[in-house]
Amino acid sequence: MEKSEKIKQAFIEYFLENGTHPPSVYAFTKKLKMKEVEFYEYYNSFELLETNIWLDFFKDTVTRIESDSIYSGYSVREKLLAFYYTWIEVLKENRSYASQTWRLIDKRKLKTPTFLTDLKTSFKNFARDLIMEGKESKEVQPRKYLDERYPDALWLQLLMVLDFWVKDRSKGFEQTDAMIEKAVNTSFDLMASSALDSVLDFAKFLYQNR
């Protein structure tokens, strides 16, 4: 096991056993029987380490879906479904850590938690590529200014999926699978159909004639 992975695993174990970060890098590395400077070769803080852990969940997910030979032939809708389903599979392998970390977040705050910042950037880039592909395949209706916000909407959807999964008590998390399907189908129905354009046009009319 590479030293960076050894550090990650030790951090996760400590977090699960104590419900918090180690008191200091010095105390943490001493327990691992390594020099403190070795920790800083990979991470400059526990916050960066935790950010890296969640980013690895994303990278692992993308690697798995893209290694499937049939993935490239999927529609954009199917690609997002594949991402969510695979992401949940990755999280299942780390459920105790992922769920405990998520539960500690103050959901009343609108600011993205520090440990999710890199994941957010990477996912939004992934979503942006899907939206561009969807426009080319006519699965996504181009809408001036509005379609630029689609990656933000899908990021919120990702957080909804995460929150639902953490709270899901159904066998095999089958309710999460159902939620993913409904969420993705609804979002793509809105992005593709003329229904949203009608709603926006009506809202514009009301605003201009109030």
UniProtKB/TrEMBL annotation:
Transmembrane segments: none annotated. SUPFAM superfamilies: Tetracyclin repressor-like, C-terminal domain (SSF48498). InterPro entries: Tet_transcr_reg_TetR-rel_C_sf, TetR_C_23. It comes from the Bacteria. Residues 79-206 form the Tetracyclin repressor-like C-terminal domain. This is TetR family transcriptional regulator C-terminal domain-containing protein. It comes from Flectobacillus roseus.
